[in-house]
Amino acid sequence: MAHHNTVLSQLLKLLPRHKFDSLSQQLDGKRRADALSRWSQFVALATGHLGGRKSLRDITSTLDSQSSHRYHLGCKKVSKSALGRANEKLDYRFYCELFSCLYTRCNNKDEKHPFKFKGKLFSIDGSLFDVAMEIFPWANYNNKKAAFKLHLGLDHDGLIPAFASVTIGKGSEMEQARLFKFPKGSTVVFDKGYSDYTWHNTLTEQGIFFVTRIRGNAVYEVIKTHAVRENSGVISDETIRYSSATNKKRNTTVRRKIVRQ
């Protein structure tokens, strides 16, 4: 009977196992022979993440339900207590180093975005992910749940992260965005959560283009109206300047406002 690898097994093959084991020896040191291996911990965490599992018991139950596949994954039986100890005791820096290794490999792939303009293209956004309030009370988000926020800058050349940081859920998206350094001539896309006109001016001064949505309560004046091609999907194309008293003091640069169907 032919053997067919599971999807999880195929995904795990993308990891450089030699580098994985080398990092484990470097950061974890010598461990008891019966201790849960770093690889088994990783397989369990990957199962939990990809399968949307909600607890350690949920993860281990999922692995037990497919115990016949553990051999092909190179994973031993994972108990709830062993996984909990590994998560608590093993050095978190292992995964930082593993990410750096994988990122370097992905970054060497010379893939370009299909859009017809020169320069780099980035998208930035912040996403919440919930954690247990009883374990992370200091990450209190709204008195009902605890959460962290992942701030990510996506490089569309290869669709890999170019910038990433993690804060508590209430962490400011703008505070993190100001730390990201974009190359001159690049284009950055973001939503209305990044509507800081002073930062927009800074991007313009650095020779960086940006695309975002205008706030519904924005006050502006139209400086110039541009012709629109028929059947282009564009309703209007205008050059505007924000005209509120605050923005006049900031000397906000002009913007291009395009309305599409």
3D architecture notes:
With 261 residues, the chain is of the alpha/beta class. The protein has three domains: 100 residues; 103 residues, Nucleotidyltransferase, domain 5, CATH 3.30.420; 48 residues, no CATH class. 35% of the residues lie in helices and 22% in strands. The strands form two sheets. The chain has a five-stranded mixed β-sheet. A three-stranded antiparallel β-sheet has the order 6-7-8, with no helix packed on it. Helix 2 runs antiparallel to helix 7. The longest helix is centred in the middle third of the chain and has 15 residues. It is elongated and about 75 Å long. The relative contact order is 0.08.
Which ranges are low-confidence, i.e. pLDDT below 50, for 5 or more consecutive residues? Answer: none
Under CATH at level 1, the class of the largest domain stands as Alpha Beta
| Sheet of most strands | 5 strands, mixed
Total of DSSP H or I helical runs spanning 4+ residues = 10
Oligomer: single chain
Rounded to an integer, what's the Rg over CA atoms? 24 Å
